[in-house]
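Title: Prediction job returns without error message
Component: structure pipeline
Severity: low
Priority: P3
Assignee: unassigned

Description:
Job completed but the reporter wants confirmation the result is attached to the right record. Sequence as submitted:
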Amino acid sequence: MGLCESCCLSEKRRRRRQQQVSLQQQQLLQQRQSISQNAPAGEAGGVPAFSEYSLADLKAATGNFSAEFIVSESGEKAPNLVYKGRLQNKRWIAVKKFPKMAWPDPKQFAEEAWRVGKLRHRRLANLIGYCCDGDERLLVAEFMPNDTLAKHLFHWENQTIEWAMRLRVACYIAEALEYCSSEGRPLYHDLNAYRVLFDKDGDPRLSCFGLMKNSRDGKGYSTNLAYTPPEYLRNGRVTPESVIFSFGTVLLDLLSGKHIPPSHALDMIRGKNILLLMDSHLEGNFSTEEATALVDLASHCLQYEPRERPNINNLVTTLAPLQTKSEVPSHVMLNIPKQVEAPPTPQHPLSPMGEACSRMDLTAIHQILVATHYRDDEGTNELSFQEWTQQMRDMLEARKRGDFAFRDKDFKTAIDCYTQFIDGGIMVSQTVYARRSLCHLLCDQPDAALRDAMQAQCIYSDWPTAFYMQAVALTKLDMHKDAADMLNEATRLEEKKQKSGGVS
């Protein structure tokens, strides 16, 4: 075979490999999109499916229910104890501990918890599990790391909540209530500023704990009678209209920045003393028109007769048009840093590569890839003697320069050299794609990093490193549920290879 024929053969193989990899990558993307679109409600947005937890797991997560882990104590506005905890997979949780024997029948408690656990919404701090063990009755929910509305409104240290954020809180909580009502859970027990929590992005969420009765007979609704719906005082029952009344008290909190008895607030509103009602810490930085609309809505919610109050749908339609600064993230308006967590790690032990990826430790990943070199590429390419052309030598030289740059942490140069190698098309190397993926991550290019990690998977479908690199890139893109799936798949493949005596 002559030199020209060898070059033609190399070019044909290059095109065929490029077509195969491109087709495989498209298939992977389609599969991932299909999985995401058809994911069960319990897995939406990275929220785990509702399940039963053991008491041992919750004790381990909360330091045996240590006082140091308490985030909310029994009191005027927060009945029962709530602890923060961290499971073995590193997921943070909130655990509500009911008083002993509040629910004597464990079956009734479990049934009530399962009904609430079916709800999944971005405006809720969702319920993810429960525990019945002896006299213990516990609920497990997503943990919200940025405190309560009460803390930001009444006990702030650096700055009060700005007006646009207060409008956002009102609208988001109304949306949460509207969703719950549409799902057949219109009752919410003791809605107040302590039930509104802020997630890692600073977005307000409604605690799922208020959807669950405090006991089998629903007693323990509120301990502050000044703000309790009047019909509850009359007959001891919570109705959907009672929730609207409580929502009105939250609107008063947002308007005034302090606790005001509804009767006193209504007197001020009737006397047209709206400016006296407004929080002085806002220093006049609010729209009078928007404030008037909010005051008007609050007064309707606080009507003595339940039938005169608006329904939940009216709350959303009134508040949605008042939203401003929609382009500004909540954490910016609250002046808090956005928290980024690594994806939850699998339950089984992790390899050094798995540990580095779960910690998002790019330096450690770099060290591992340097040490591993091209061990996993063996057998990927089978080339005839005629294919060792000058073009082939140029490609290998480009890869060599990329390796030196990668080792020396000159990641932009490494990207250029590895790209030259890949574009040559004669050889394929999952390791080159993995290395270029890390280079893209270190250059703050997570989209490109994800594409390279997927290309590595196309070349070697059972290579754990390809899945690990996808997990890191997906985390950078805030796709935490997909990142957790990739971590689990990578560890599964590693275990499989270890059992078969293969490399990883």
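Comment from assignee: result matches the submitted record. Residues 268 and 274 are 7 Å apart (CA to CA).
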